[in-house]
Amino acid sequence: MCGYTDITEEEEKLEKILKIGMFLSLSAVLQIAENFFVIPLFIPGVKLGLANIVTLVSLYVFGYRDTLKLGIMRVVLAGLVKNGFGVNFLFSLSGVLLSVTASALFKKYSRMSVTGISIAGANFHILAQVIAARFIYRTNLFLVAYLPYMLLVTIVTGAVTGYFGKEVLKRIKF
Amino acid sequence: MLNINLNKILKALKTYELNRADIFYILSVAAVSFGIIFFSSFFLRYSGDKAVVRYNNREIMKIDLKENQKITLEKKKYPLLLDDMVIEVRNREIAVVKEKSPYNYCQMTGFIRNSSQAIICQPNKVVIMIEEGKSRSEEWNDVDITVR
């Protein structure tokens, strides 16, 4: 009986690893696919953040710790496959760390919906990247120049990814 | 007309299933953003006379913004560039007008003239910033006005 319980726990662990692996590959594919869509805006470099749909769903399915691990693995994978481990890696890593942490805190301590959490995640993602840019490029007042516009844009992009995340959560069973 | 707009807003809220907490958060972020835009446009925009060009994280030149000019950074001299890059100074503003990169983001940035802005060409390892000069409020203080 004791042995049977051990096998079930192992199976559960294996199942979780498989699911996280599936989420990781999906987020990597979405991140690569996103490079084909450039949003024509007066601020260069704005992206929808399709991979954040996976991060959002993961936050509701697996919780904070596993989502943070998933986010870090995605950034490392993107570094290995495409971007390398230079400035882009630091931008992505800072964005993931702050956005996942902020989303988890909002999820725990506020009554915000899935879409709202996604918007908050997008806001904090860009906040982390602008702060990183401030230190990497040592630009004066860089925050003031870009941050407010980026915050407004990420309300929209966060709402779009949040909408997809919400629809996915309605349809999948874990 | 107002009804149509309200209906559209209500429909959008239903589609995205936003609740009161979401709307409060969105309005707060929007208010902070517009506040920063308003505040910075009056107090924190520093114009300058010189632009600093950094290549691969080291300063390679300072450009005088008082003089209209075109400067070419050659790939021969700066091998990390993807191709020759042309920088233009016009009416105390500076822009990258020709460069090679996957999305041409730094060309899209256009002309800048405040130290709060920067042109970042990450694929070419080039960053252009304007050296801090006087803020707009300081410029106003410098203008001698006599009222009689």
Question: Can you describe this structure in just a few lines?
Answer:
The complex is a heterodimer of chains A (about 170) and B (about 150). Chain A is an all-alpha fold.
Q: Tell me the β content of chain B.
A: 25-35%
* SSE pattern of chain A: HHHHHH
Low-confidence stretches of chain A: none
Helix content of chain B: 25-40%
Q: Please, how many helices of chain B?
A: 4
User: Unreliable stretches of chain B, pLDDT < 50, 5 or more residues?
Assistant: 143-148
Q: Summarize the main sheet of chain A.
A: none
Query: N- to C-terminal separation of chain A?
Result: 26 Å
User: Largest contact between protein chains?
Assistant: A-B, 34 and 35 residues
H-E string of chain B? HHEEEEEEHEEEH
The radius of gyration of chain A is 17 Å
Gyration radius of chain B, rounded:
22 Å
Global geometry of chain B: elongated
The average pLDDT score of chain B comes to 80
Number of strands of chain B: 9
Strand content of chain A: under 5%
- Helix count from the secondary structure assignment of chain A: 6
Structural class of chain A: mainly alpha
Pairing-aware structural class of the strands and helices of chain B?
alpha+beta
Q: Distance N terminus to C terminus of chain B?
A: 51 Å
* Overall morphology of chain A: globular
